[in-house]
Amino acid sequence: MSDMLTEGQQLQRGQSLASNNGAYTLTLQDDGNLVLAARGEALWATATNGQDVQRAEVQHDGNFVLYTSDKPVWHTDTQGKKDVRLVLQDDCNLVLYAADGPAWSSHTETEGPPPPAPAAEPAVADVTIDTAEPTPEPPPDAAPEPEPRTYTVVSGDTMWAIAERFYGDGSKYRVITDASGVADPDLIHPGQVLTIP
Known about the structure:
Blueprint: E1 4-6, E2 10-12, E3 16-18, E4 24-28, E5 34-38, E6 41-45, E7 55-58, E8 64-67, E9 72-75, E10 85-88, E11 94-98, E12 101-105, E13 149-152, H1 159-167, H2 173-180, E14 193-196
Antiparallel strand pairs: 1-10, 2-7, 3-4, 4-5, 5-6, 7-8, 8-9, 10-11, 11-12, 13-14
Helix pairs in contact: 1-2
């Protein structure tokens, strides 16, 4: 898998790009949604699932567009840019570069290291059966709760857009507002920190 699409190249359903470090993928799913994921966990999506998207194409006019069989349903609105290429970077950011610099991005860049690769399954060893009474094992300790993700609101954000970014579905904004104690989803402010469960 490549980390890049250049002018005229496209992803068909089921095809993916992968970052050079292998931690991030961009997949045009069979349901028509274009999803950016970290080791299988969705981080950003175009929310085009159910729209019968057939391909995602970097056009010669500078625009990156998702098409059904007969019409466009999502685009980067970058027509007029020259020498464009779409790159899935090792920092998790999806960027459409043009000759004069970045033209569009998913704004999903991270500063920390990529998530670790999943642990390999341990090999099965030969087992000797012991007929002695088994010693009861102590109950396992409760697994610690994972740290919730957070997101700092920037100017122009809406709860719908934030939910689309993290869950691929804007209608799930209530999950974020409930976890963050936001009484009115229309009243969020730049600098406000939201909990993303």
